Amino acid sequence: MLFNELEKKKVFFFNFLKCSSVTKQNMETRGVVLYVFLVVTVTVTVTTVNGDGDRILEQLDQNGKFFASWEIEFSTKIIIFELTVETIGYIGLGLSVHGGMNNADIMVAGVGPNGKPYIGDFHGIGNTIPRRDKQEDWVLLSGVENGTHTNVRIYRRLDTCDNEDVPITSDTMNMIWAYGVTDDLVYHSHTRGTHVVNLLDTVTIPTDTSTFKQWDIIVDTPMPTTSFSYWCTIHKSPRFLGINHIVGFKPFVKTKVAIEHTHHFVIYKCEAPDHNNEIFEPFVGDAGGECYGEKEMATRPTQYCKNILYDWGAGGKELFLPEHVGFPVGTRNTEYYMLEIHYNNPTRITNVQFLTGVSIIYTPKLRKYDAGMFTVGHTVLASLLLPPKSQDFKIVGHCSPECTTRGIPPEGVKIFNVLLHTHLAGLRKKKFFFVVVSKMQMVWICQNPKKF
Predict the structure, then answer these.
(1) Residue 407 in 3-state DSSP?
(2) Residue 294 gets which letter from DSSP?
(3) Angle subtended at Cα 315 by Cα 311 and Cα 319, rounded to the nearest 5 degrees
(4) What sign has the CA pseudo-torsion 9, 14, 15, 19?
(5) What is the pLDDT of residues 43-102, one digit of tens each?
């Protein structure tokens, strides 16, 4: 077993293991993408968890100095990390629900001046040196360093039953990291960061896009100075010569400042009344404006952009459709789309500008099945209020038989991707779920775990 092999403490310095392939299930009916938009859940992309022996590798920083890889052994319910960092000091890795140090589960490891590896289990008490746990749950498998880098292999149980730890579930969480120039646990200055991740997500196999076409919907607009804002821009598709299939989406959120301040973005397809889509042309290429400002809504045709094509949230990765499924575009020679970006600027900093958007991968070679989008939730209205001091408050979105009859064919659909999304009010929601009725049975599709 993987865990037994790791206990032998074989060290593989700079061993960035190859990811094993993921088997895709064949679909027998017309494929449909199902994105569930629930206003009281937490942002999480729900996919099949990676199996024993699969390794996920992530670069946590922007400069290529901090690499983390991990794998899950479900039979023993443990997670094994390998960290390779350009330092000969300490390495810190933490699991945080909200992204900060407070209440984070923190591990500090390294190789001391005496050449012996060390590890410590801590928990965050704010923006200061973390406090040692009463119970040590992080276990050191190996630790080595050369003149420039340190490599450690560690593990812990997914759920340690320790109140000072953070359980690892299928929910999205923040992986906080830091490292020092020495082994003294002191303030880490700028050598720190946060990386949004789903630790139980699937291994992502790189997709060869050399035979496909690419179309970018990306903006480079100064971020508004309000604490949060929704910024909308109109974009024009390439000229299509018939129906094409979108086969993948590659989010363009690359820099540290873009990752920090892009809460999410949505691509909507625009359809004007009487198919007069030329009304969108004057707004293509301009700087855009507030999506829901009174002036902007009166002067810009954003109200005609309603059908979701793609939705990205913090921590989201590239999305490629199954090899026999494509999202149809090109019913017109030219189509128009709106990019809605939710900028998050709680400290109201000024003079910040960065690229945000998505590269759409498409092909004129049609696949066997068309994909579609199905959105379920609750419209955000002034009447949608949580009573003061509520411990729990359930908000339910329903889809009537009239809707499912029009949108779902009699032979049914295959679901291959689900997105749950909410804002801060949903952080303490214990559970929310989406169900369908099939042969009089309630079928669970996805749910987010308990939040703390």
Answers:
(1) helix
(2) H
(3) 50
(4) positive
(5) 222 233 344 557 888 888 878 899 999 999 988 999 999 999 999 999 999 999 877 888
* Contact assessment for residue 157 and residue 78, using Cβ atoms and an 8 Å cutoff: yes
Q: Which helix (H) or strand (E) holds 141?
A: strand 139-145
Name the catalytic one among 35, 179, 230, 337. Answer: 230
Cα 311 from Cα 269, distance rounded (Å): 12
User: What amino acid occupies position 305?
Assistant: C
- Beta carbons of 71 and 53 less than 8 angstroms apart: yes
The one-letter amino acid at 398: H
Q: Nearest-CA neighbor of 196 among 106, 97, 314, 313?
A: 314
HEC string of 307-333 equals: EEEEEEECCCCCEECCCCEEEEECCCC
Please state whether beta strands 414-415 and 31-32 pair in parallel, antiparallel, or not at all (unpaired): parallel
Check if 421 is active-site.
yes
pTM of structure: 0.68
Closest CA to 249 of 148, 320, 170: 320
Backbone φ and ψ of 275, nearest 5°: 60, 30
- What are the residues whose beta carbons fall under 8 Å from the beta carbon of 379, sequence distance 6 or more? none
Only one residue has tokens 């993408």, namely 33
Percent of the chain with pLDDT over 70: 78
